[in-house]
Input
Amino acid sequence: MNTTQQEGNSLLKDLERIRKKTKISNKVINGQLEQIITEIEEAKSINDYSQLKDKLQNQKPLTKIKQTNNECYAYISKLGKNMDKLYKKNLQYGQEHVELDKNVLTELIKTHLLRDGEFEAYETLLKESGSAESSFHQFFTEAQSIVKDLKERKLDSAIQWAETREKKIMNCLLFELLKQKVIQLVQTEGISAAIYFMRDNSSFQEQGQAHLYEIRLMTCSIFLWPNVENTKYHYLYDDEKNWPRILNLFLEVAAKSQNILTKSEIRTVFSAGCLTMPKLIKYNQITRNRSSEVLTNDIPIDIEIGKEFKYHSFFVCPVSREVTNSDNPPVLLKCGHVISKLSAHKMIANKSKFKCPTCPVETKGVDLPELIFI
Output
């Protein structure tokens, strides 16, 4: 007997148990119901219901009916659990089929490979797909070289890169790189080398006015070297925290300069999918057998996956269950709750005021302030 036959026989045995238990349960339930009817008819015939309550409480027919139902349900529940064990969950209930544009997908893969420094795989993809060179090729090549230097605690290439970019975007990064350079000089070449760098470096001088307070703190810490660990400036020399922070800051600013995400789009979607898919599968397994008139694919499901996966704000109206937009913006009620503008208009109708759908506070139907989520 093969595995499939064994699984089928196991389910048939469960169903047979349910059939027998249901048959027994029906007899017990019908017997208890007949007893209740008999007691009621006797009380009715003598027109005296004073003893009826005591008789029913002593005999406990309703309790027996409930226990019998629970026992029957236990067999049904066991069948469901066995089916879950025997048959794997079908992923088709957790997602909808989406047609992807091949050109768009190729561009995403190319950017993903460049971002991870997989240049050989990138060149292979270009040859096999026949697509053009990515506009980000040079940027990621240079960025990967700088990332490598920063991991080796070399700052010169990153400083030079930041100095040649738009100052408005690079100011924070450039100062952090220069500050770390000063700290590094103090640690490796001594106080004099750090002071000469602060005095002679033009980029450091340009940062002076904008970061004057931080420069003063850094200067104080320099003259306390090498006993700075016992002072309030010790955090400036914490290499285990400062170097990873600078690397992450470089990646964020570099991505911002190109108007792209810090992390790979493919990796981000994959990670978010791994977090949401189990919950979507569970939701669809619960709802897929219900009436299609009530449940549709347009119902939004709020799944919390963490701030790192949030790239823009949006609002789902608690009344209409629709995502608000410029034509149907969210509006603020008197109580502080928020609904969509169209939902508010429907609730107002011809009234001068209406109750909040969340709380009993009333709001006047005029001049509802619109909200803008950033």
In short: DSSP finds 14 helices and four strands in the chain. Strands lie at 330-332, 338-340, 353-355, 362-364. Residues 3-45 form the longest helix (43 residues).
